Structure formats: structure tokens, C-alpha cells
Amino acid sequence: xxxxxxxxxxxxxxxxxxxxxxxxxxxxxxxxxxxxxxxxxxxxxxxxxxxxxxxxxxxxxxxxxxxxxxxxxxxxxxxxxxxxxxxxxxxxxxxxxxxxxxxxxxxxxxxxxxxxxxxxxxxxxxxxxxxxxxxxxxxxxxxxxxxxxxxxxxxxxxxxxxxxxxxxxxxxxxxxxxxxxxxxxxxxxxxxxxxxxxxxxxxxxxxxxxxxxxxxxxxxxxxxxxxxxxxxxxxxxxxxxxxxxxxxxxxxxxxxxxxxxxxxxxxxxxxxxxxxxxxxxxxxxxxxxxxxxxxxxxxxxxxxxxxxxxxxxxxxxxxxxxxxxxxxxxxxxxxxxxxxxxxxxxxxxxxxxxxxxxxxxxxxxxxxxxxxxxxxxxxxxxxxxxxxxxxxxxxxxxxxxxxxxxxxxxxxxxxxxxxxxxxxxxxxxxxxxxxxxxxxxxxxxxxxxxxxxxxxxxxxxxxxxxxxxxxxxxxxxxxxxxxxxxxxxxxxxxxxxxxxxxxxxxxxxxxxxxxxxxxxxxxxxxxxxxxxxxxxxxxxxxxxxxxxxxxxxxxxxxxxxxxxx
Length: 565
Prior knowledge:
Low-confidence stretches: none
Distance between the termini: 23 Å
Largest sheet: 6 strands, antiparallel
Radius of gyration: 48 Å
Helix content: 40-55%
Number of helices: 17
Shape: elongated
Structural class: alpha/beta
Strand content: 15-25%
């Protein structure tokens, strides 16, 4: 819903701030007062084309801001997320557009600079402008199928169709990938035959190179272990150690047998005893050390041949890895891939046949879902056509016929939403033939047709704010009253604005704004807008009935219109 609109230095508007409300608001005023300027300003802030000529004379730039309050489940929040905008749904949503004499126009959403295209895409989800050939969603045939589906309540059928289409596309992709693989394989069949034979002789296992690398490292350590054990054994088994210790032991024993040692007071006797005991212990430790070192010889096996075999295998794997441009550990996987590719060359594989069958099954499933959707659409189209036709007669469009035209989707189009496009078509005069909505030449007629369609689709969602520009153009009396009644009816589910010259339409509104043009101190004209109270509204509708000279009869008629509304 539109909450507020602020306009600065735009055409004849110097400064204008509007607060909008729910329901139906009528915008009235004399011809040329500037009602269309407000519509142009709103179109600009919703992504319309910028024109520097719209900057008010004497100003450097024009600025328009519009505040909206869409519900938390509105599609606009998904649009923002898709474009990377972080906007809290609890915040006020403010669109802003500026036009300067120098430089490009700029667009903002909640202070964040955005492209005009994004501003327009987001704006179309919030506001629809109808009439005078305004670029509303009705003028874009791409929106018509969605409107029909919303009218028919096709959500479940659409989800089923979309899922079937996704599965069909996956099946097509799988089949195409296999066919491409087979084609590629046939183109290099000779090389594949050589590669399979070569790798089969090597017979590599996945991860084998890493295993051999680890084994080679261990074997290299074993060689070093054997060398060091041999050096230790040679050193410790030499007779020099035992001979010298034995000579030392005999010498200390002779010292102990010398007479008179105890008579000496210098402690030599105790020192000799300690030396003799130490030498004896050393002899025992040497013998034990020799036994332990000799025992290590059991671990000094000769792995030279095993190491040679491991290194030869490892070097062969690494050479094959360079040859086939892959990690040596992946050679087994590469062999399997080449075998599978070669099989594709040599015969029609069951995998390809299975892929073709899966594609055919998926296509049949999608066609079934799409056909069910098509039947329902055509049935709903008849109901919608009847509903629109019921609205056209009271709107002075009884000569206009409407239908929903269907056309099969193109070969390159997505079938996620079914097998056909849909477009609303009209026949403006009996026998003239059906054509697109733009064949309705009159802006007023187009606005009334839009009104009829929106009434028929009133329960189907869409933009919450609808603006009708002179839907009463060229009509009056009962037709204008019918327009007012339908605008009021629409406003029960939507926020509705209508620019009107009809007192019957204006009196149907919940509130009324009057647009007027007055000169400022310098004589320059400015457009102003005011919300009318009950008395002012009575006078304005009386003016619309009688012209500049308001009579008592006009006031009485205006009072009657307001009372009936």
C-alpha cells in the first residue's frame, strides 16, 4: 500500500507531501490543474523514464519519494534478496528518484543506490497504473498467463508441472552428456585402445603410489639400521676392550695382595678395593653389552632386493602419471574411465539406452502434467472471459469481446509453467477480429477494460495499489456510476486511486483530493493538492456537476450522489 508521496521541484509542483489512506481515493480538479503531473511523478519513482525537462524552472534537480507498506509475505522481499538488498520488512519501504540537470538520474531504495531497472521491477509488484496506455502489467502479454493461473487457482498444478519439467531437463542433460562422451570416445578410439592396454599391463591400484612411497621410506631406513648395527657389533666385539679390562683387573688384584697396605694411613687400601670392584663390574657390563649388540643382528636383514622392486614399481607409476597427465594414485580410476569410454565406442551401451528411456519417460510425465494444466486453463479461460464480459456492458464496452488466446511455447522456451503462452485479446467491434489489448485505441476505454479485468480478478492477488487514469473519459451518467461502483468494490481488497472528471466516480470514493493550480509571488504557476473535508467535497462535486458557477441545484445533486455512495 502507498503510505506517502513527496514531490519536489517537478514540473509545476514546487513542494508537495501527500499521505495516502486505504480504500478508494478520487483525484479531481479542473482540466490542466496538474492531476497527470502527480501520476507522472509516481511513474518516475516507480522506474519510469526520466526527462530533465520535468525539473521545475529555477531548480537544479527534481526529487520524488514514495513510501510503501507491503506485507511481510509480499513478493517484493524475495526480489530484494535476489538482488542482494538487505531490507527489514519491519522498516518503512521508501523509493526515491532524483533528476538533475547534469549527470544521470539516480534511484534509491531505503537509502541504498539501485538501478532504475530494479526500481521498476520492484515497483511493478507494488503499483499498477491503468489508462491512457500506461505501461501496466495488462499491456505486457508475459503477465497474462500468470493472471489466468491466479484466477484459476493453479498453484498445485503449476508445482507438479514445474517439477516434471525439471526432471525432464535433468534427463535430457544426462542423455546429452552420454552422447557427447560416446562421440568424444569414438574420435579417440585408437588412443583409448592403446591407453587401456598400456594401463592394464601396469594394473595400477588407486592410492598405490602413496603406499609404495611410504614403503620405500621404510626400506631406506632399514638399510641405515643394518649399517649402524654392523658398526656397533664390530666396535664392541673387538678384543681390545676385554684384554685391557682383564689386565686392569689383574693389576688391581696384585695391589690388593701386597702386604702392609693396611698400615698406611692414606686410604690407599680402600681406593684399591673400589677400583677392583669397578673393574669387575665393567667386565660384567661389557659382556652384557656385547650380548645385546650381537642380538641386534637379527634385525639387520638384507632388504636390498625388495627396495629395488619397490622403487622400480613406484617409478613406473610416476612415469605413467606424467604420460596420462594425472596423479599416479588415480591411475586405476583413469583406467576405468578409459575402459568405459572405449565401451561407448565399441557398442551401443545399455547406459545410453537407459538414459534415452529415462528422457522419454520424463518427457511423457511432463506432457501429462502440462496437458492437465492446459485443460484447466482453457476451462478457466471460459469462466474468466464470461466474468469480464459481465463487467464490460455496464462500462459502455458492450461491443468489445474478449478472449484468452493460447499459443504453444517455442522449442527453446521453458515448459516449467506448462506448454503454452496465454494472452488476453480483444475484438473492439463485431467482426473486426481479435487482437492484442493495445488495439483498444482509446485511453479511457483501455482504463475501463482494465477495471473490468481487475474486478474479475479481484481475488487473485497482484499489486495492492491500483491507479486508474480517467477511466470515465468520454462517458457519463449510468456508465460513470458503474465505474465508481466498481472502483469502490475493488477498494475493498486494494488501495485504489482514480483521476476523474466524473462526479459520479468522485462521489464513490472514500476520500477526495482536489488538485489545483495557483500563481506564486513571482507569478509562476504551482500545482497544489488538498484533501477535502465533507463540506469542501460537496462543493467540489457540485462544481463538477455545474461548472464554475455552482447552483443550489448542483449542491443538492452532489449531496444526493454522496448520500447514495
